[in-house]
Structures are given as structure tokens and as C-alpha cells.
Amino acid sequence: MKTPKLQFIDTTLRDGNQSLWGATGLRTGMMLEIAPVLDQVGYHAIDFSTSTHMAVTARFHKEDPWERFRLMKARMPRTPLCFLSTGMRFISWETAHPELMALSYELLVRNGVERFMVMDPMNNTQAVLQSCRAISKAGGREIVGALVYTVSPVHDDSFFAGMARALAAEPAVDRVYLKDPGGLLTPERARALLPALRTAVGDKPLELHSHCTIGLAPFTYPEAPALGIDALHTAARPLANGTSQPAVENVASNLRAQGLDVDLDMEAAARVSAYFVALARAQGLPQGVPQEYDARYFRHQLPGGMIGTMRRQLREMRQEHRIDEVYTEVERVRAELGYPIMVTPLSQVVATMAVMNVLAPQRYANVPDEVIRYVIGRFGTPPVAMDPNVRDRIENLPRARELAAEPAMPELGELRKRFSPGLSDEEFILRAVMPADQVDAMVAAGPCRRDYSPALAPVEKLLAELARRPDVSHARIERDGFVMEVRSHAAATGAAR
């Protein structure tokens, strides 16, 4: 049923961290430290993780992502943790077997996830519905079906309203949300589209998730409640703006200025932001700042993080002066591939092909495997037909025949035979989709560290650096009355150096 008051979903730990800090900025202890305060703000849910974030947790931090879920749920008993799924893969880029996806949903529920957001990179309605039903069967308490917003000749009000109507008609879908990963929704476009979606979903709640990539979302959000939106996705100010979501402080202020009630504990929200300001300073991480409007963005629609990565790669090849050519080529490739939505993994498919086309003597002279997999249908069916010349050229490549003959991921029973029978389900599924050495390192590292203090972070960094310096046997640290002396074991025992 339609919610009686405006709700907020916090994106700080997942999308804010991903948009501004590459998903690597936050370790488990950092999240646990602020979790009780986040639990006090009054958010409807916390946008917490994806399978990609789980991989980052294990690969970069050597922390068990399943333990992270359990610890966070214990620190946040009132606010549901939310998981975003594409429904087609789990950690690995390969298309997952439905049995593996079903097990992943069961384990997420078992380890503390209550709410799921489900999207399909092609906006395939049946694919979203299939995933929602599987999650419902696994015990998901609240399931939100996504419409992924984009701008193209085929993605009009009728397209989105039709998909919204189909999602809302499914009993397993509790809510519908418009996911705008590029921050492309203008206030003018919202005035036409959001009422159409409101009518299409009937009494089911409707949410809006948009990014600030070209500065539009802060203008669109204040208008959204009057246009039928029941919940807005926002982040704490230090992890808002930039390519992240609007800051909750700014959105709340603007809504209250127009007479709307915001049922959040803004004092607790201020404490959350103060914590992340201190954390960002201690870790040397950037804070989000408002973005400038860029009309060109509507044509290439590259996610903000990808633009930075692409510029760096071109700079390393001494080709950064060709960035405008790449933008133009992105637009051309996207049209030739049937207007895929510029969201992971399809934005990477289009951008990689565009860069290669610009740098090669001939377009499509070299085609990477992920583009081939896209063309042969491994990511689903694009909204419109691909350019037949491009499709035929790629399908006739010898590598395309090799990839088409690749065996699909085996059934769960067959997959289990490859691993020790004594593994927990949680460890088994990580080993099934991740390199063994990464999981081995995670297991060897032991339990997640559960504490973090921004004030002590610089000292910890210094100690870690000293530990890597065998030539340093003694150090004395003094600051503002604080004194600490550190001696190596050899120096302390008088052993020969």
C-alpha cells in the first residue's frame, strides 16, 4: 500500500562509498562505529551492499562479507539492510546459474539482509520478475523492482509506465523504484514521467534514486513528492553530491521550506556526517562537492567514475587529447549496440569498445570478449535491434564461436563437488565465484576488525609504515601533549641488528 509519509533510504555506505571512493573506502570497523547512530536517524532502510561490494570486501580488505552483514545487523536492529542485485550474476561477471542465485538470496537473508532492490541492465521486465520471485521464495521481506532510467529514442514515458505496471502487478514485488544511475532526470522530465509511474504502480510505494553527476538531482528531488514519489534515496553530506546522491541535509531543508514534513532525526544525521568528515580527513578521501551541468553528458551518459578511469587510461597511453573523440564514439557504439543502458556492466562494454575503436586504425578491428558476449546475448536482449553490419561482423569472429560454445555455469550439485564438503555455504559460494587465492587470504586474515577511530587513524598508518621499515628500530611520536615511543623487538631485547 502507498506509504502515508515521505520516507528516506540512506545510500552512504553503499552508493556513496562506491560513487566517491570506488567502493574501497570503507572497512567493516568503520561502518560498525557509526551504525548505531545511523539506526537512530529514522531511515526506512540502508542501501548497504551488492555482490560487487562483497567482492571488494574480500579482495581489498580481506574481510568476510557475510560477517560484515551479521555484525552490521546486530548494530542496526531497527533499520533494514538492503542489497542491490542484477539477478543475472553474483560477484563473477559470468552469468550465474539460477540455483546459485537462489542460494545467494537464501544466504543474504540468513545473514541479515531484509530488503532487496532488483534491476536488470537491459530493463528486461521478465528478468526482474523472475529474480523478485526467487528472492521472495528465499524469504526477502521487502522487494523493490527497478526501472533503470536512461535517455534514448526508445525509452519514453510509455516504455517506463508499461514496465512499472507489470512490476507492480507482481505479488512478489512490494515496491517499485526509478533508478537513475546517470543523474539524467531533469525536473521538466520528472513532471511528465513521475505522475505516469504513479498511476502505473497504483497503491504500491514508488521510490526515486538519482545521482548528482551533472547537478540535476538536487533540483528534481524537492519536486518529486508532489509528483507521486513516496521515498527518496539520499546520502550523508560528505558522501553525497559528486557522482553520488543528494545530501539528506539539503533535501530535508528544501522539502521543509515548501511545507513538507520530514520525519528524520536531523541531529543524529548531523552526527553521521560529522563522523564521515573526520573519517575522510583521516583516510585522505575526497568529500562530495556539487557538480556542474554538462549538456554533453546526455549524449554519452558515461558514469562519473568511468570518466575518471578512462581519462587516466588515455593519459597513460599519451592519448588524453582524444577524449572528445571517445565521447563521440561512445554515442555511436551505444546506438549500434541497440541503446543499452549505461550502467554496470553495459557501460563498461560500450566504453571499452569506443576507446578501442578510436585508438585502432579501423573500427571494430579488435573486439574484447565482453563485447562479444554482449552481442551473442549473454547479457540479454537490447531494447532495439543492433546495427546488422556490426552484429554480423562480431558474430562471425572466430572468438565469437569459441565464446558461444563455452559451457554454462554448472548446477549447484555439480559445482559443490569441486570443493571440500566441509565448507560452510557462505564460504562455498565465495569460492565458487572468486579466485581461490583471494578467498584463502580472507580466511587467513581472521575475523573482521570491529573498531575504528578517525582520531587514531594517522597513528595506525604511521605504525604500519614503521613496521615495513627494518632500518627503523626506534621512534618517538609527540603531538599536543601525546607521547608514544615505539621500539623494534630487536632493539628492545638488545639483540644484534
DSSP E strands, number: 10
Contiguous runs where pLDDT drops below 50 for at least 5 residues: none
Which shape, going by the Cα principal axes? globular
Mean pLDDT, nearest integer? 92
Q: Structurally, how many domains make up the residues?
A: 3
Please name the fourth-level CATH homologous superfamily of the largest domain.
Aldolase class I
Task: Give the class-level CATH name of the largest domain.
Answer: Alpha Beta
Give the N-to-C terminal Cα separation.
Answer: 73 Å
- How big a fraction of the residues is strand? 5-15%
> What helical percentage do the residues reach?
40-55%
Outline the biggest β-sheet.
8 strands, parallel, barrel
Find the structural class using helix and strand composition: alpha/beta
| Rg over CA atoms | 24 Å
Characterization of the model:
- It is a single chain.
- The chain has 23 helices and ten strands.
- It has an eight-stranded parallel β-barrel, surrounded by seven helices. A two-stranded antiparallel sheet has the order 9-10.
- Helices cover 48% and strands 11% of the residues.
- It is globular and about 70 Å long.
- The chain has three domains: 277 residues, Alpha-Beta Barrel (TIM Barrel); 108 residues, Cyclin A, domain 1 (Orthogonal Bundle), CATH 1.10.472; 37 residues, no CATH class.
